[in-house]
Write a structure and sequence with these properties.
The chain has about 350 residues and is an alpha/beta fold. It contains ten helices and 15 strands. Helix 2 (about 135-150) crosses helix 3 (about 165-175) and helix 2 crosses helix 8. GO terms for molecular function: oxidoreductase activity, acting on the CH-CH group of donors, NAD or NADP as acceptor.
Length: about 350
């Protein structure tokens, strides 16, 4: 690390309404933090861009406190330890945690909102996958289906935001379990990818005027599992097609994340009564609550990858200075699969298996 290098970062200056602007999230350059006893310095390599980032910027009631005004924007990343004053994070180790939207982060148990973890060595897959299919998004898809959706062979599973980071994995897991899987996406090109590459049985473009009729035709036997990422009118229509004993996995409500802050920001669903009529269940979950299950999930996902039953999509943008634009892309629907920022290259070699190097 050069003595003249700066910590490039984004600080939250105000709570955004709608798209995030420069006045909301400001790009700044600051001195690289220094570390003391019990700390380690991490150089961010990849930064995950997730819909939940938008929630953290607001005052919506959430599972974690809002990002404080003037604080570095919260975000999940992968980095390499470049200086250390602790035994459990050696220099050169590849780690993942809440690095934030910044080029350098400090590991400090006293202030970290989520513990950092060291990735396995050698890496069994390309580094970026540990923020996607083998990271928190893939784990979200796995645990949501495993614990709440519980899809059985022959059942019909509907996945909204089917071309997205979580939806694309959830649908493929359901297919691997012998289900009929129907997705919803926002363009004809995405729908073609969802059926042609990801292997879904059908996909509906929710921007078509007759999307409701198309969805009804795609689920002639009703819906047994709804893996919900969007909310709003899409979720309402799917709930009106639920079968007896159906399960609704509430993973995300991206249609409502850009609303103004406050208790009413989430709006409301019109078809909740169908839970009664169809004796269905609905449960929300947050993947951070299940850290003890991560090895199980990663093992299952890695197995599907090794068998060629799991396709992964990544949209990687170079340069942390593009973080604000990338966050807005999530709500424009212009990315496919997992959206990542490549912040820097590793300073020290990163051991990988031959299989991981071949797919990098």
């Amino acid at each position: 690390m050069s003595s003249t290098e700066l910590n490039r970062c984004f600080r939250l200056r105000r709570r955004p309404v709608g798209r995030v602007t420069e006045a909301d999230l400001e790009y700044v350059e600051e001195p690289v933090p220094t570390i003391g006893p019990g700390q380690a310095l991490v150089r961010t390599l990849y930064l995950s861009v997730d819909p939940t980032n938008r929630i953290w910027m607001s005052e919506m009631r959430s599972y974690i406190a809002p990002v404080a005004i003037d604080a570095v924007m919260r975000g999940i990343g992968i980095g390499q330890v470049v200086a250390s004053e602790r035994d459990d994070f050696a220099v050169g180790a590849i780690v993942t945690g809440l690095t934030g939207y910044q080029a350098y982060a400090v590991i400090d148990d006293a202030t970290d909102e989520m513990p950092y973890s060291v990735l396995p060595e050698p890496l069994p897959a390309p580094l970026s996958m540990f923020l996607g299919a083998l990271g928190h998004t893939g784990i979200t898809a796995y645990l949501g289906l495993e614990d709440i959706g519980r899809p059985q062979p022959g059942e019909t599973v509907v996945v909204s935001a089917a071309a997205g980071a979580v939806g694309s994995i959830a649908g493929q897991i359901a297919k691997a379990r012998g289900c009929r899987v129907v997705g919803l996406a926002g363009t004809d090109e995405k729908c073609a990818h969802v059926t042609g590459t990801l292997g879904f049985d059908a996909c509906v473009n929710y921007k078509d005027a007759d999307w409701r009729e198309q969805l009804d035709a795609a689920v002639p036997d009703g819906v047994d599992v709804d893996f919900e990422n969007v909310g709003g009118e899409i979720m309402d229509h799917v709930m009106n097609r639920l079968n007896l004993g159906a399960r609704v996995v509430v993973c995300g409500m991206i249609s409502q994340y850009e609303a103004s802050s406050g208790d009413n920001a989430w709006g409301g669903q019109l078809s909740i009564g169908q839970l009664i009529m169809r004796r269905a269940s609905m449960k929300g979950f947050v993947v951070l609550d299940h850290a003890d299950r991560f090895p199980e999930a990663i093992g299952a996902l890695a197995g599907l990858l090794a068998e060629g039953r799991l396709h992964t999509d990544e949209t990687i943008v170079d340069g942390i200075e593009h973080a604000r634009d990338c966050l807005n892309r999530l709500f424009d629907g212009t990315n496919q699969g997992k959206l990542l920022l490549r912040v820097a290259d590793a300073e020290l070699p990163v051991p990988t298996t031959e299989a991981a190097a071949a797919t990098a």
